[in-house]
UniProtKB/TrEMBL annotation:
This is Ferric iron ABC transporter, iron-binding protein. It comes from Candidatus Burkholderia verschuerenii. Residues 1-28 form the signal peptide. Keywords: Signal. PANTHER family: IRON-UTILIZATION PERIPLASMIC PROTEIN, THIAMINE-BINDING PERIPLASMIC PROTEIN-RELATED. The keyword Signal applies. SUPFAM superfamilies: Periplasmic binding protein-like II (SSF53850). One of its GO terms (cellular component) is outer membrane-bounded periplasmic space.
Amino acid sequence: MSQSRWVPWRQLSQVVMLSLSIAASAHAASIIVYNAQHEQVMNLLAKDFEQQTGIGVKIRNGKGSALAAQLVTEGANTPADVYFTESSPELILLEEKGLLTKVDPATLAVIPARFNSPMGDWVGVTARESVLAYNTGKIQASQLPPSLFDLAKPEWKGKIGIAPSDADFLPLVSAVLALKGQDQTLQWLKGLKTNAQIFDDDEGVVATVNRGGMVTGVINDYYWARLHAELGDKATRSALYHYGNGDVGSLVNVSGAAIMKSAHNTDGAQQFLKYLVSERRR
């Protein structure tokens, strides 16, 4: 009698253990990405990665600075495996806080070393140059300023568009701060605020410049290239101006990805970073 009662309980125990094992395997077969890249792009990347590897991707979208601050607050308790962002200053912050683990050397080797973390804690995925988009019907390239700092001068009032709340603007300000110091940076920003029309994002800046609503605007080159691809040559009435002589206005901003030191699926996260720098992703 006791044996006949014991067998079902033993079987039940085996079923429970098997269920827990399956649940653990399912968890190991997915990663959580805190994403500060464009949501549409990230969704396409995640879908393709899942098809290629069988590793599920759960995405939490947000602004880069907000997600980085959240990761600092969560610390070792974060559910995130990967942080993927448009701007390197946020990656540097997490690196300084000791929250990142090393990226596989083979993944780092795909990207020129100058675009990666010197410590190997994050990998650069794309590089975008800060430029001026200008309307070719309103101004000639020869009339554009030789330096980004000139945009704060009175003669440019009402002629420029900027998107200070866009994630791409902060690295530019950080570069000016490192080069000129706080006082000169504040003076430049005040002049820029006086002269500029404010937009929500770089897409708004370049679209307005292209249709002639603004003479010129500070953007990353990616946004003009995307608009040009959408409109074609005939409907594109703008062009890009690249600052010369090493001017800070031609800053190259690196977007990148990192793996959290407390990641629940480090292997899956490493595979995701490997995918991000692969020829297939590009």
